[in-house]
Design brief:
heterodimer, A: alpha/beta, Ubiquitin-like (UB roll), Alpha-Beta Plaits, Rossmann fold, 3 domains, 4-stranded parallel sheet, 18 helices, globular, B: alpha+beta, Glutaredoxin, 4-stranded mixed sheet, 7 helices, 43% helix, elongated
Chain lengths: 595, 162
């Protein structure tokens, strides 16, 4: 690679050809403020539209200021990042941007966590000298995501995630000039688009233009209602990220504190989605082995690979884009929904309550879970199995609102029986985890032998698409893993073309899996945070006394007392689901006369 | 949500597919395809955009983004006689806005829309390169130069009996 020397603020830095001024500056810890720019390093996601002009710098010999995120270095270049001219330009850009932004900071959902607000504080903005018309646009409410386009600053990060990373293609810039907004086709609302509710747009939005639908008030109302028994479940990825909202280092495990906080919030039973993750492995593992066995014995009606179905964003994606392949994903419901179904039947019987007297709340790293629990098939007599799903961020807000000093809470344990779980369940929170958990149990069920080493290093990592072969006592089980819907699409297209050789594939909609979910504390573009969360997940797994789902005593008891065996009729009814093709359809219109 | 159904007449669908095919169904030819499609249908209704998106394998949001970005493209059917009033700098300073207002007043439709009888539609336009004739009005392919507000009635009269 060709090297070149660049002088930034009188300091010389050597960079490779093709490096931008911003990259060169960051190499020597010179901070240039950015707003529209986004770099999720390890995942190869870089967004540098040069649109907001906050990152402008002065380049010697160049007439106008250069956007540092989108300007390449050249040898001998001299750059000033904080001259008076630069600072004035940035301030003007900021003032103009704010002149078309609602002043709702006090009541805004993003207050304290907003990139635009942070920038205004950093620049010491005290007044907006420009007054004029503000652009206004209709608000859009869906089951999971809120769009408040008036707060959009046209950074177009959401478009990058929706179109290029996730290949969902719902959001696009439309119209031009002052009227331009980011919107779905024909300016329909999100619930009339192919939005999967993966929430990656929410995860990268610098302002409150895109946020999750907030259900904390409904949950508070349920908690205050003495006639309701309120049960809460917490997803595995939440414990590896919640601490960040309280100033802890990324990757700090806060399982015990989280349980303590939920008990202080007066949830009647604090349970764990991990319990349902173990249950998922029982059902999904049995399904994989069943399908594999029939396939290997020559049954032509069986299709492989089996795809995991825990991720609701992913389920939405294949219903919209691969409606011809609905028979490939596992029919197992997601852990959230398995939990709800068991809580409102098995557990309801145990505590002698009617399902209508119970409220099941889930704490999820996810936005799509909010939509998932509203799906009609996950309700009985119009009473949903899971009533409300809160994101990790919403839980943090709830804890703060209740004035609980999270950092000082003593560790507490989950309640039984639905709080007991294994290490296999915890790793559901990261890419590769579900299939590793399934492998641990399926190996023992298939071979009848004890699995000595439960860690499958070949299934772990952060690469977008991974493959591995696991030796099942002489049978090579081929496993594929994809995270991020764009990567999933590649594997799916291979299957459609008959080129796939995998027996089982795990897919997660969000980059990194649930640790990078749309409902997690915002990573503000720092992918090291995702890695730290992943490490924490594996750490929790390693510290668990039981690390295989089928050895969970409460799960064994659940089958003995209630379900019978995996894939039984009762299990089918409560723990499995079906999928619906929702592709756009072109219909020939025949009832219109030709002119 | 349930699946979106896109209704199109068979003949229109075939023509549209043919247009896409003539550009090798390449995503990079989106603007050319839309240009051709508008030539055939006179406008670009949602159904047409849906088919183009599917044929070129781009998201329909992107197609809609392009259609709404370029003022040439329209989603409402243009009138039999599309009226364009140039509001470029030269025409503007010589009173194009008053001319435009007069068209709007007489036809009772705003810019970008079509009269209920489908006869006329009004559009703004930025410079046709005939600044010497400012203000300029186009009706279909016919150009009128040095138009004054009181000349508007006369222009419309030409199209009365057709």
């Amino acid at each position: 690679m060709e090297k070149m020397k660049v002088k930034i603020d009188n300091r010389v830095v050597e960079v490779e050809k093709g490096a931008t001024i911003l990259e060169a500056a960051r190499k020597i810890d010179i901070d240039i403020p950015t707003l529209c720019y986004m770099n999720l390093g390890d995942m190869g996601i870089e967004h540098k539209p040069g649109g907001c002009r906050i990152c402008v710098v002065e380049v010697e010999g160049r007439r106008n200021l250069a956007p540092s995120c989108a300007t390449d270095c050249h040898d001998g270049m001299e750059v000033k990042t904080h001259s008076i001219r630069v600072l004035n330009a940035r301030r003007t850009v900021m003032e103009l941007m704010l002149s078309d932004h609602p002043f709702e900071c006090l009541t805004c959902a993003k207050s304290g966590n907003c990139d635009l607000q942070s920038m205004a504080i950093k620049f010491g903005i005290r007044e907006i000298p420009y007054e004029g018309e503000k652009s206004t646009y209709k608000p859009d409410t869906s089951p999971a995501i809120l769009r408040d386009v008036d707060k959009c600053i046209m950074c177009r990060r959401c478009e990058k995630m929706c179109n290029e990373v996730q290949t969902v293609g719902v959001l696009s810039a439309i119209n031009r000039g002052f009227e331009s907004v980011v919107a779905p086709a024909f300016e329909r609302n999100l619930d009339h688009s192919e939005c999967t509710y993966c929430g990656q747009c929410v995860a990268v939005c610098p302002t409150a233009a895109l946020t999750e639908v907030d259900h904390t008030n409904q949950v508070l109302r349920a908690l205050a209602d003495p006639t309701k028994t309120v049960v809460v479940q917490t997803a595995p990825a939440v414990r590896a990220a919640l601490g960040e909202e309280f100033g802890m280092e990324p990757g700090t495990l806060v399982t015990g504190k989280m349980v303590a906080a939920l008990k202080q919030l007066e949830f009647d039973y604090v349970f764990d989605t991990d319990f349902a993750a173990d249950l998922t492995i029982m059902e999904e593992g049995a399904e994989i082995l069943g399908r594999l066995g029939r396939f290997l014995s020559g049954d032509k009606s069986v299709k492989l690979p089996v795809l995991t179905s825990c991720c609701p964003g992913w389920v939405n994606f294949f219903e919209y884009h691969f409606p011809d392949m609905l028979d490939i994903p596992s029919t197992a419901r997601s852990p959230q929904q398995m939990f709800g179904a068991i809580a409102k039947t098995y557990f309801a019987e145990k505590i002698k309550k009617d399902r209508k007297e119970m409220v099941v709340v889930s704490i999820m790293p996810c936005v799509a879970k909010k939509y998932e629990c509203t799906r009609e098939e996950f309700a009985s007599d119009k009473n949903p199995d899971v009533d409300f799903s809160l994101s990790t961020r919403e839980l943090a807000n709830l804890i703060k609102r209740a004035n609980i000093d999270f950092n000082k809470l003593p560790d507490e344990e989950f309640d039984g029986p639905m709080g007991e779980s294994t290490g296999a369940a915890v790793i559901f929170g990261t890419t590769g985890g579900v299939i590793e958990a399934a492998t641990r149990s399926a190996y023992e069920m298939h071979t009848g032998k004890k699995l000595e080493k439960v860690d499958f290093g070949q299934l772990r990592g952060m690469e977008g698409i991974r493959e591995a072969t696991v030796d099942f006592d002489g049978f090579p089980l081929k496993i594929g893993i994809a995270h991020g819907l764009g990567n999933a699409r590649k594997l799916l297209e291979d299957i459609r073309a008959g080129k796939s050789e995998f027996h089982a594939i795990e897919i997660m909609a969000c980059p990194g899996g649930c640790i990078g979910g749309g409902g997690q504390p915002l990573h503000h573009g720092n992918s090291a945070i995702l890695k730290a969360r992943q490490k924490a997940i594996y750490q929790e797994d390693a510290g668990k006394p039981i690390r295989k789902s089928h050895e969970n005593p409460s799960i064994i008891k659940l089958y003995e007392e209630f379900l019978g065996e995996p894939m039984s009729e009762k299990a089918h009814h409560l723990l499995h689901t079906r999928y619906f093709g929702r592709a756009r359809e072109i219909v020939i219109e025949t009832d219109v006369k030709e002119e | 949500m349930s699946a979106i159904k896109i209704k199109l007449r068979e003949n229109d669908l075939m023509q549209l597919k043919e247009v896409c095919k003539s550009f090798n169904n390449e995503a990079g030819e989106l603007i050319n395809v839309l240009h051709k499609a508008q030539g055939i249908f006179g406008y670009l209704p949602a159904e047409v955009q849906e088919v183009v998106a599917q044929e070129l394998n781009v998201s329909v949001a992107k197609v809609y983004g392009v259609v709404t970005f370029y003022s040439f493209f329209t989603m409402v059917p243009r009138g039999k006689y599309p009226i364009s009033v140039c509001t470029g700098t030269a025409c503007y300073v010589r009173g194009a806005e008053k001319v435009l207002d007069e068209f709007k007043r007489i036809l009772k439709v705003p810019v970008g829309e079509t009269t209920p009888d489908g006869k006329f539609s009004i559009a703004g336009l930025r410079c046709v390169g005939a600044c010497g004739l400012a203000p300029v009005v186009l009706v279909g392919d016919k150009t009128y130069g040095r138009v004054a507000p009181d000349g508007v009635k006369e222009i419309l009269k030409e199209y009365e009996d057709n």
